[in-house]
Request: fold
Amino acid sequence: MNKVQSVSALNKAEPARAKGLAGAAVALGRDASLIWINPASPVGTDSLSLSVGGQQGMFGERSGQTVAAGPVEPGILTAGFVYYDTGSVDLQNPEGRTWQVIGQQDFLGALGFAMPFTNRASAGFSVKYLHSELAEKFVASSVDLDAGIQFQYTDSFKVGASLRNVGTGYKYKKEKTPPPSTVTAGMAMIFLPAATFGYSLSSQDIFLLVVDGEATASGEPLSLRGGVEYQTFGMLTLRGGARFSGEEGMRAYSAGIGILARFNTGENTLTGHLDYAIDLGNSLIGLPQMLNLTVEFGPPPALPAPAQPPETPADEDSVPAPEQPPAQAPESLAPEEPPSTTPAEAALPAESPSATPTEILPPAEPPSETPAGAAPAIRRDVMIPEPMPLPRPNIVPEESPAPGKQ
Reply:
């Protein structure tokens, strides 16, 4: 049975990063451009991102794609668009007259959502609408669904699976074309070259190994794909991949390169990923190539928090002060500013080591205005820290006789 599926925008959407890995990207996350491979891939992105890409195919066909993603509670909302154009073809009528038309032109829109369920498991889905025109005369459309999951077993091992292009199919005139439904499962492993191999180009190097297997929705195997990715110096990525299949037309080797750059604009931190990939295929003529740019609009770097002044420890012999003064206390007992002192009072030490509990320290106001049994005039809500320590507040001990009766 021929396993080569119909070609449309449904199976032509693929970012450059995935193409550089021969399509093995179902377990890769924190990358919104990979929603065409696995709708759960955007989980982990914490800022608005925009990805645009274009591809030149082996037979001159062209495709372009755009993906926008942003965090919304409780996950990531994505929207994508794909354009696919096979180029012009020559038609001839029975009378021998020839003319050119666009062979096939597709427009695909997608809206998806992805979210984590635990700190290790995540899932996502997307609904897609395809509008296809054949020979500028026949029109067809379909609605399709993608769904995917990812699970992080350890910090360095992750698995993923996706079900793509499950839908109604499309019919140009009479014959209905089934959608290219596929099931994909794979894994990704991360190694630190310095620790694993004893050598690396820089201390930030990361080595990534990915393997995917793809089959039709009915269970017929399509391809086995594998790829490697080496990130070095925190900005350069080298990729390579291979795709093996029983169908000769699906076998291919690929290579790619990626460059990362960050720019701080004050209000945002822009992170740009520029990726290029080439699919070697079976011929050195018309090598498919793709270029992809992804920009993430992140928040600015966090500034260090200002140092907080230490809290003044409470004195052991002081009386705890209420949060608000009692209703019977006059307003003069809660001054907004420290009371003024006379030269005679200034000569007194702020704290006398020999003071006994029966001694009365200078009150904040004249004794005649302080009623007996009134609470101390201390308000923490108006105490403002100053560079120098505040003087010890004046406190009238409870066992002291009331002023005026001494």
About this structure: The radius of gyration is 36 Å. Residues 16-91+98-298 form a domain with the Porin fold (CATH 2.40.160.40).
